[in-house]
Design brief:
With 407 residues, the protein is mainly β. It has two helices and 25 strands.
Length: 407
């Protein structure tokens, strides 16, 4: 979210509290995991990566929704495949994010490249000075659900009130006959998530939860009903200056779960923690050697067995360019990296006026379908765009030595 300067202390407190996400100290000692980054030619030293000469993956690019007046804001992007169509959703606003008019829109596509005009999943809140945030699609028991959080926003004077005590995570169900979304229920009160639930090896679904008062926990369940969850409190080991944000859960072939974290203390590195008991407890977070622009990212295990990580890997200050795809054979060590084929213009590198966040291509999400990766992201939080990358193209990257990416 984008706070005004008057609320920066509160935001710092929030970011510090986010360090509790997923980090119960099940094992205070090192997990013994291998390095997260080990590229041919540069090894594990992220400072040797020349992002201007990384290989560029071949793929197709399209615009999903362009931020024209009077609705210029687009961010918080998610994808799904359901009933023969790609589905995209995002937060949609009259101004910058977090203002009362912000709501959730969607569009669909048969081929992932030509998209319908957008329509609302849920329109602007009828409650004064409230707003919605897109929180992802979830296919549960053959039904497509769209998730959105609802809570206090900026008020008319631009003062920040979120996150407020009315915070809750809501679900909306797609009705194919009626061709519209209907309210399904409250998934969890006093809750905002980061990505939709991930299914663990024990059959439970899992997602992270943050309350309005900054307490964080893990929600496990969602098997019998999308509205039934068990809350597991989590605590951060004392003495850490790590400020975790926007966690991503990734299930390894042996059932262990990796939690990857953005670090808002600006270490420019990703952190990770390990769970060996299906998300009920976690190791102490470890700073990895994987570079990051302090931005949201996403991981996905493909049907071919390897993992991809879509992120702003360049640690250059004040921008989120380029958008990269990294590959890991085991979900632990990423040994290939390339740039995604996002068209860029000089204005993409300029600081965004009147806001604190960096310019660039950001908030990615990805799914796999029909032998391709479909990747969605926002350009400067104004335009929702998508890429279609063949898995065969990712396999070609896996066979390269990346020697051209060294300094």
């Amino acid at each position: 979210m984008m706070p005004s300067l008057s609320v920066l202390p509160a935001v710092r407190q929030l970011r510090t509290a986010l360090g509790t996400i997923l980090l119960t100290c099940a094992a205070a000692a090192s997990t013994g995991l291998p390095p997260m980054l080990d590229l041919p030619g540069t090894g594990g030293d992220p400072m040797k990566i020349d992002f201007t000469t990384l290989p560029v993956l071949r793929g197709e690019w399209a615009i999903v929704s362009h931020g024209n007046s009077p609705w210029p804001f687009r961010n918080h992007n998610y994808l799904a495949w359901f009933e023969g169509r790609y589905w995209a959703m995002w937060s949609h606003g009259l101004r910058q994010e977090d203002f009362p008019e912000q709501h959730v829109q969607y569009a669909t596509s048969v081929d992932g490249l030509t998209w319908t005009e957008s329509k609302p999943i849920v329109g602007p809140s009828p409650d004064r000075d409230f707003r919605y945030i897109a929180r992802g699609f979830w296919t549960h028991d053959g039904k497509l659900l769209a998730l959105a959080s609802h809570d206090e926003s900026y008020d008319a004077t631009g003062r920040k009130k979120l996150f407020g005590p009315s915070l809750e995570l809501r679900a909306y169900r797609w009705d194919s006959m009626a061709e519209r979304w209907f309210p399904f229920g409250v998934m969890a009160k006093d809750t905002i998530n980061n990505f939709p639930p991930v299914q663990l090896a024990d059959g439970n679904w899992a997602m992270t939860r943050r309350e309005h008062n900054l307490k964080v926990s893990m929600l496990l369940g969602g098997v019998k009903s999308p509205l039934e969850w068990t809350d597991i409190p989590l605590t951060m080991p004392p003495g850490s200056d790590f400020r975790a944000d926007e966690p991503v859960l990734s299930v390894l072939p042996d059932g262990r779960v990796i939690g990857l974290f953005r670090d808002n203390s600006k270490s420019k590195r990703l952190y990770r923690a390990l769970s060996v008991d299906h998300g009920r407890s976690w190791s102490t977070p470890e700073k990895t050697n994987f570079p990051d622009a302090t931005s949201k990212f996403f991981t996905l295990r493909t049907t071919r067995g390897y993992y991809v990580l879509v992120s702003n890997a360049s640690p250059a200050p004040d921008q989120r360019i380029p958008l990269c795809l990294s590959v890991s054979e085991n979900g632990l060590t990423y040994n290939r990296m390339a740039r995604l084929p996002v068209p860029a213009a000089p204005q993409d590198f300029r600081p965004r006026t009147g806001v604190r966040k960096a310019a660039g291509f950001q908030y990615p999400h990805a799914i796999e379908h029909d032998g391709h990766l479909q990747i969605i992201y926002s350009r400067d939080m104004k335009t929702v765009e998508t890429l279609r990358i063949a898995l065969d193209e990712v396999d070609r990257l896996r066979r390269t030595n990346l020697a051209e990416g060294t300094k």
